[in-house]
Design goal:
The strands form 2 sheets. The protein has a 7-stranded mixed sheet. The chain has a 6-stranded mixed sheet with strand order 9-10-8-11-12-13, with helices on both faces. Helices cover 42% and strands 16% of the residues. It has 15 helices and 13 strands. It has 478 residues and is α/β, with parallel strands linked by helices. It starts with 26 loop residues before the first strand and ends in a 7-residue tail after the last helix. Helix 4 packs antiparallel against helix 5, helix 6 packs antiparallel against helix 14 and helix 13 packs antiparallel against helix 14.
Amino acid sequence: MGRINGIDGALPGPAGVVPPVAQGETIAAIATAIAPQQGSVGIVRLSGAEAVAIARALFYSPGRQRWESHRILYGHVRDPRTGQSVDEALLLLMLAPRSYTREDVVEFHCHGGLMAVQQVLGLCLSQGARLAEPGEFTLRAFLNGRLDLTQAEGVADLVAAQSTLAAKTALAGVQGKLTGAIRQLRSTCLDVLAEVEARIDFEDDLPPLDEGAVRSQLATVLAEVERLLATAESGELLRTGLKVAIVGRPNVGKSSLLNAWSRCDRAIVTDLPGTTRDVVESQLVVGGIPIQVLDTAGIREASDPVEQIGIARSRQVAQGADLVLLTIDAAAGWTEADQRLYASVRESSLILVINKVDLLADGAAIDSAIPRGLPTVHTAAAQQQGIDALEQAILKTIHADHLTPSNLEFTVNQRQGAALTQARNALVQVQQTIEQQLPLDFWTIDLRSAIAALGSITGDEITESMLDEIFSRFCIGK
């Protein structure tokens, strides 16, 4: 049965009831990020029928502390074989069904770092728990009806969010706002299907089908599906972010631009050409979009083998970037080297950054040889000027200038978008079937396809292989 351990094969859906996952194995995992000398608290989480028994075997709580649900106990984690204390900790009990997984859940709140949590996890495994697979706690929450599939994916998005806007849209998914929209669409399609099938089965006993009403209902559903699909591109930007490469000749101010933009001295700045030998990276958020900014070595003909390696990497970064900021020196104007560099990146999404405009003589015109029609920004990076205009140009170029918390309540991810596309295509086919005056049996074929596609989004219709694919992308411990 793959990831679904201890279950007889039934999956959520209108056709049956899912057996409680607590009948399966008790799982354990470290639920917090761990790193040496970082993090004051580390959490080891258990879920399953034996979670409390394992906790009782490992945790010594002095005094008369009561082992009750949603209570925190103080004590020590001890190795039952030796009696040796492993850590001073807190124990949190959350008994079924009032827990994240709707099973008995126990959390050891240990000291952070590496050793304490790893030792506690090892003791849990020695007492019969199994190491959880990625996303298995959330999978159990889904299988036990605690979350639907869009809420579960919202949890993963919330954990991975890199901006406040990404976190906001992810939280909307966790709260079931996308679920409500999808289930309303599916309910309407089910109503239409019931009306159509009733006419097929009891044609002589019912009045004729109101074809106009059916057309209207399907048009409304299709319009809402299109609206949801329109959020897919924004959702992808919020989740994966944007890779932006700053490229140009040596000494045009690329490193100064990175420093001004990131508001820190990420890159070394000197008057010597070739100072930047390798790619320098900075993580920023622009308009709610996570952006990985890459300052590259100045591209020119070089004899220094180390600089040659840096230049080769610069070309690779430019080719792999989502957006290229081609940076030139306003005072030097458009040179032959700039033209060659432009020719090598012109197929990319491109913004021309004319830097050092503060060094132009009063009244001097910027070089007329600069290609026309390119999105262009004027900056004086050393003076911290033009950064806001650069950010607005980036958002406009990637069509993200409309993304604000007020007009983007939630977004659909790639899987959900693919299912919505299937639903849209099926609904369009139903409309064509009606137009062609085909028998009602033909209507039901595509209506069922649309209903199945919408059901796969929320998990009302799902296969084990789909669950494996979805939850394998989660972190262990969530």
